[in-house]
Amino acid sequence: MTTVELLIYIIFRGLAIGILVSAPMGPIGVLCIQRTLNKGRRSGLATGIGASLSDLFYAMFTGFGLSIVVDFIENNQAPLQIAGSLVLTCFGIYLYRQNPARNIRKRLNQKSSFTQDFASSFLLTLSNPLILLLLIGLFARLNFFLPEMKVGHYILGYVSIILGAFIWWLTITFIIDKVRSRFNLRSLWLINRGIGIIIIIMSLVGVGTGFYEYFIK
């Protein structure tokens, strides 16, 4: 793999991880939508930024642990891809069956600053260690760590992850702000199901690829 190919490899996988770890409509996604609808896009964006930085912290923590055993990962790429894909499949099924509308609560337009929205979102995301499992699954499925990666490559990867997360939150708050008069609970449910289906399909492809490389190739 040439230097340019490696950079492109890292950037695109980092962006994908950032988007996929942010996209599920869990408590933070619902909170972001609530704040966008009730207090405007600025409040929703502050919520997304707080969640993104918390996700970055977990990504760096997970990545540091996995980078230590990068040679083991390289030598066992197929089994780890299968395991990571199975974890993602379970997560995708859970996401598909989940109804995020249950978490919606009618709230008054309580005033809070950008900093308060950011801090509450950061702490709420940080209190959810299940993100570690999702990140481990994504790192394994996308084969994010390679033996030839150096410190600069890791930094680029983490920057790409947080950029992917920012892209997601910018997009979702923009859309919700523009269609606020037509947005309903069914829309939230459909978003979650769509994301769940995408993760399941990606995971099943990973399982198939892993089995092929391990048992057939």
TrEMBL record:
Keywords: Cell membrane, Membrane, Transmembrane, Transmembrane helix. GO terms for cellular component: plasma membrane. The keyword Transmembrane helix applies. Pfam families: LysE (PF01810). It is found in: Cell membrane. It is a multi-pass membrane protein. The chain crosses the membrane at residues 6-33, 45-66, 78-97, 118-142, 154-176, 188-212. One of its GO terms (molecular function) is amino acid transmembrane transporter activity. This is LysE family transporter. It comes from Candidatus Caccoplasma intestinavium.
